[in-house]
Fold this protein.
Amino acid sequence: MWRQPNAEFIKQFPDFLHLLSDFTAVTQPPFFTPPKLRPLNLDVAALAGGGWAPAQFYGKMADDCEVYCRYRGGNLSVHIAAHPGEEAYAGDALLEAVIGPYLHGGLSLGQLCRYAGITINGYAPPLPTAVEILKEGLLDLSGETTFLDLGVICTHPSAIEFYDDIVNNLSEVMGCDDVNGNWHDFKLCDRGEFAIGWRMCLARRSGPMYTMQHWPLEIANIEGVGSFPVFGLIQHAAFQANNPPRWYTYLCRPQKPAILLREKGGLDVDDLWLRLSFPANDESSRQLAEEIYNIFVRRFPPATLLAYNIDTGERVPDQDPIAPCPFDSRVAAWVAGGEDRWFWGTQSCGIPLGYR
C-alpha cells in the first residue's frame, strides 16, 4: 500500500502531497476495442511491406501515383500522392485512425487490406497464419477483440507481488512461466519469485473455449495440466533469473548535465507491462479483466508527478504531466528519502527538470 513520505521532506516539497493516491480519479479500466473502419474500396496496382513499429507499406496506383500506409502505436494511416513523382506522405490522407493498442506496431499486408478496404489488382491478400501471428507479434484488430494495456515503472518486489496478487486471488486465472521462450509451452507458476521466463502468461481456467471468426485462438499448453485459452501476459525483468534491471530511478544533483541524470546508485526498477485480450462480446472475460485492473490500481495507485527546476528547486508547473500515472509505493518512498532523488529527469528549453 501507499507509504506516507517523511514529514521533513514534505516541508521542503509540499507539492509532493499530490502524489498521494486519489482512488476516485480512476474508476473505469481503459478497455480498447478497434473500430470497424469504413472501407476505402481502394484498388491499387501494387502494394507490399510490413515490419514493426512502424509497419510500412509502399505501393502505386494505376496512374503511377505513390501509395504509403503506416501503422505504429495503434495508429493507421493511408496516403496517396497528388501526382506521379510526388511523395505519398505529402499527399492526401485517405485514412487516419486508431485501430490498435497504443504500444502496438505490427500489421500484415492481409490485415491492412482487410481492415482498410484495399485490394491489389482486385485481389485481397489473406490474413496471417497462426505461425506468422506468433512470429510477428500480430493482434486481431478487426473489432472482434477487446484489449486492456497497463504499464508502470516499478521495483522487482512490487512486480512479483502484483503477479502473486492475480494468480493467488483469482481462481479463474492460472499463472504460467514461458520457460522455453516460444510463447506456446508453459509450466504452472504460482509464485513470481520462482519464474525464469521474463514473460508470464495468464490463462483462463474455466473460461469458455470461444472461437474467433477470422483469427486463431491463442492457446497455452501447460505441462501436466492441459491446454487453455491465453487471457493475458505480464512482462518485467523480475521474472527472469539473473537478469539485471534495465533502468534506474534518477539521482539528480544541481549543475549536473541532464544527459547524465540517470545513473547507477538509484533504485533498481523496470517497465512492467500487462496486456489482456478477450472477445469483445464476452461479458465474463470483461468482468475478469476488471478484477485484474482493480488489483493493478490497488498495487500501483494513480499519482500526479510534478516538475521542478533541479538547479533552483523551484516548481515548473507548465511542465507537469497532464494526467496521473500509476505509481509504485516503493519508488515513492525512495524518492521521498532524499532531495537529490527523482522519479524522472530530463531537460526542456535549457532547464534541467526533475519529476517527483
